[in-house]
What we know:
By secondary structure, the chain is an alpha+beta fold. 35% of the residues lie in helices and 28% in strands. It has two domains: 3-116, CBS-domain (Roll); 120-216, Alpha-Beta Plaits (2-Layer Sandwich). It contains eight helices and ten strands. The strands form three sheets. It has a four-stranded antiparallel β-sheet with strand order 8-9-7-10, covered by helices on one side. Helix 1 packs antiparallel against helix 2.
Amino acid sequence: MYITEYISNEIKPGKFSYSPNQLLEVVQENKLTHLPMFKGLDFIGNISEEDLIELSFENKVVDYTSYLENFFLSDSSTLLEAIQMMYTNQANILPIINEHSNYIGSITENDIINTFANFPFVSAEGVSMLVSIAEKDLSMTAISNIIEANNGKILGMLIVGYKDDSVYVLLKFSSSNLLTIGETLERYGYQVIQKFYNDEKQELLQSRYAQLLKYMNT
């Protein structure tokens, strides 16, 4: 899950000598929130689309220094770190800088989505089950043992949130013993919140997930 294999050089960074209109054209053509900026050979930060729109009315080369946002990833970062940084900075592109402070490319939101879409946890056929339990009693080992003891194959487990003293875990597995697995989990103190099947309509999944988020945020 290191970002090294997902680094791209398709999007050319902006230069300090470019006009706001030139930079804005690159941003809008690639549907970016920000553009990595260079002064000579040095990476100096990122400029947002909003600032470029404001500056574009001047239609001349300007001093971008006060508009730059200094965020980037190292080439040893993971995809999860990339997601967190994108969320923190409300950005859909991140510049990648190596240990020698050299710019080696970027990673975009679409790169990450396409990568995760191919993970077995997302793409493989199976059953998704949302369970909750007191945080102090959560055991990934116990969940694994229950699923595997009932001839299930685990595809992934993901902690999706907390509410009060409970933790919510999304499970994905392949098994024909769904009822037995659910009953066994409940015997061990897990509450089965919802089961999602591959043949359910996407609208129904989205509706139930939205209801869960609303419940957890109240």
